[in-house]
Design goal:
The protein is mostly helical and 411 residues long.
């Protein structure tokens, strides 16, 4: 396993999550600055996510053939350029346009960072590799919260300069990493599910456009099939991701309701992603050492059990649920990637990243419509994680390396 290349590739994913988290903190300030509603200002987030969702898989199919390193260079350049252009823009319309440029860049670099962890090295240490990736990428959420809160209080436009400079630093190292090229056999099969999932995000922008995209995706999905183990483990991960994002958004709304300012509640919310980050690597190593099936199942059950701690104290709940989520996410992703042949992991990583993006959108929506009390959020966390754990029961684990190779060939 080439840990150095995985770290370098993951850092570009860190830049993407760091930038995305910072802009969330600045939305209320941007709305005041331009005299627009919070909904209009949040379009900077919505448009970004929608474009990412639509382009994850198409770009994966393109750059798996021409080289992932070239894709990361191209995507990182767009991320950096978009941020600098936003800093010098004078209208909200210009910012939206340049935000689209950033979104195109992010749609390339975010799944690519997972590809390196999924494709480089041997499968016996896949969990550890993915743990490194998840730890670095999730640090973007951890660092982005307090940095975003501090910088937004000074000058919100500086947020984009910070992310652009980080993208440039990352680009300086990307040129040195090993290139990866694949020709997947599931590229065509991934387009249907990709459109169906993307339609969920597009619904926020336009309900009819979202329905049309979802319908097209579902029709295409009927004609193609993804590997069964990949589908089952992806469903588990998707359900868990919805609960993780629901809880994170719930915390923001809770602390804002209690009267904390942007800096204060960004620091309070920090405990959840911080706990997630610290235990992501542990989840990957555990899946390598123990059963790849047992670890995610136990972690999903822990997530459901620890949800009850919300009744006791929100800070305690942040820590416990962060630990459970870190273990669950990394171990489940490890199984998902191991269920695919090496050549299919570029497209598989893009589709898995898309699932996380859609789950974030669903989680934010759920958190925004439920009450601030603990009962509603628990009714989301407990059943979805129990269903995710139930899906793990149906995972099929090859008994030997030879069987694993045959399993991959059949796919």
């Amino acid at each position: 396993m080439n840990s150095k290349d995985i770290v370098v590739a993951s850092f570009m994913g860190f830049v993407s999550t760091f930038e995305a988290t910072m802009i969330l903190i600045a939305i209320p300030i941007i709305s005041v600055y331009f005299g627009i509603s919070h909904f209009q200002a949040s379009l900077l987030v919505t448009i970004y996510v929608a474009i990412e969702a639509l382009l994850f898989v198409p770009f994966a199919v393109v750059f798996e053939r021409v080289g992932l390193r070239l894709g990361m260079i191209f995507g990182g350049t767009l991320l950096a350029a978009g941020g600098f252009l936003i800093f010098f823009s004078s209208s909200f319309v210009e910012i939206e346009l340049f935000r689209i440029i950033q979104a195109v860049g992010a749609s390339i670099v975010l799944p690519t960072s997972l590809v390196y962890a999924s494709s480089i090295g041997d499968d016996t240490r896949r969990g550890s590799a993915i743990g490194i990736n998840h730890t670095i990428v999730s640090l973007g959420y951890v660092v982005g919260l307090p940095v975003g809160g501090i910088v937004a209080l000074l000058d919100w436009k500086v947020l984009f300069i910070v992310s652009s400079l980080l993208a440039l630093v990352s680009l300086a190292f990307i040129f040195r990493i090993k290139d990866v090229r694949r020709v997947s056999s599931i590229g065509r099969s991934a387009f249907g599910p990709s459109l169906a999932l993307s339609g969920v995000v597009v619904l926020v922008l336009n309900i009819w456009a979202g329905i049309m995209v979802m319908a097209m995706g579902l029709i295409m999905s009927l004609r193609t099939h993804l590997p069964g183990e990949y589908v089952k483990s992806s469903i588990s991960g998707f359900l868990h991701s919805i609960t993780r994002n629901s809880f994170a958004a719930y915390l923001v709304f809770l602390y804002a309701y209690l009267g904390y300012n942007a800096l204060h509640y960004s620091l309070l919310v920090l405990l959840f992603p911080l706990s997630f980050t610290f235990f992501s690597l542990a989840g990957g190593k555990a899946s390598d050492r123990f059963s790849r099936k047992l670890v995610p199942m136990l972690a999903f059950l822990m997530m459901a059990l620890f949800s009850i701690s919300i009744f006791v104290n929100s800070i305690l709940a942040e820590i416990l649920l962060g630990v459970a989520s870190g273990l669950a996410t990394t171990s489940n992703t490890s199984y998902t990637m191991n269920s695919l042949a090496q050549k299919n992991r570029v497209v598989g990583s893009a589709l898995r990243t898309l699932q996380g993006t859609v789950a974030m959108s669903i989680g934010l929506t759920l958190a925004s419509i439920i009450s601030i009390g603990p009962i509603d959020i628990i009714l989301i966390l407990v059943p979805l994680n129990l269903i995710a754990a139930a899906f793990v029961i149906f995972y099929e684990l090859p008994k030997s390396k030879e069987e694993t190779l045959n399993h991959h060939d059949l796919r």
